[in-house]
Amino acid sequence: MTSSQNSLQAFQLFQGISRETLDKLLNVAQIQTFHAGEIIFKEGSTGDELYLILSGTLEVLKSTDSSDFVVTEMTEKSHFGELSFLDGSPRSATIRAKTDVSVYILEKKAIIEHASSGQIMAELFRNIALWSSERLKHRTSNYADSLEKQLSLLQEKNYFNRFLLTITGTYSIVLVITSLLGGLLKHINMYSQSYSWLYLMILVGPVLLFVLKSGEPIRHFGVTTSNWKRSCVEGLVLSLGVIVLGFGLLSLLSRLGWMAKTSISLPGFLYVMFVQNFFMLILYFINSYAQEFLARGVFQSSIQRAFEDEKGWKSVLLASFIFGVAHIPYGAALVGVTLISGIFFGFLFMRHKNLLGVSIVHSMLGSFLFSMAQLPFMDKMA
Questions:
Q1: Burial of 6 by CB count in 10 Å (0-12 exposed, 13-18 middle, 19+ buried)?
Q2: What is the rounded average pLDDT of the residues 22-48?
């Protein structure tokens, strides 16, 4: 077997073709070189030549109304032009040399005119049909994958559009109501618990509708029993640790004379917080869960999904900022506190993916501050 025969057998198109046929094909094959950037043929042109790439790289281009774009590339041992060779149809794409390229060219007319061409054409057509069938299967599979990706992208786009619409609509409603209360109903106490609950429900309503329309299971937004034990235990331990440290710091400030001394002890303070204010603690936990559902469950999770934020810190910061802005009616100080605490709560939620733990921390630290405000020395700070 000659080296030329061997080179033809390296092409997938010629697998299984007899040695005699290879000899005859080589007798009519022409070798031609194309320089980088040169067009071999254009989409829609006529021709019945079959091309075999000996060396170099080619680009396959498809035309649109405005420009041409590269679909794929072909390298040595590939072939092209087989469909026009088979049935004389116009070229389905433009072929351009990306680098200097050397090709074999098999002209259909030359093969037909060759002696014993019937056997040659039969073997060639068989192989072209088999190869085209395999390529069609591959393209069908690729098309299905591409279609699945496009549908996924469309779903993500619709999800994010609904999320943006929800955020924009909710905050617009809040601003209108706040303006009305501040301008027309000045007698309403915006710092009362009743207004706080009303304000929260205004935020929760549209966001809850978004969640129901999203098609995602509610556990996607942190409302789940998964990992609940770890979430609750770590939330309680963390909260009690901060409370003990906080009370100890304030007691130290009292001893240093920076605020009036108080006779209440840590056990007494915990009694005030967990017994005397127990009902308030339960209500505030419900309130905190609703807030964390908004800020962490929906805002943070949706932002992380939309921006493919694998590490999550960007979505934590942005969600904390968005939720902090929602507290503008309560003043800049509360906006700052919400923003800073929201960053802490955001990373805690990322750890558990469960709203229970972060809601426990939120409600207990909030109750801690409320209970501290009731102590005798809090209104006498130097």
A1: exposed
A2: 89
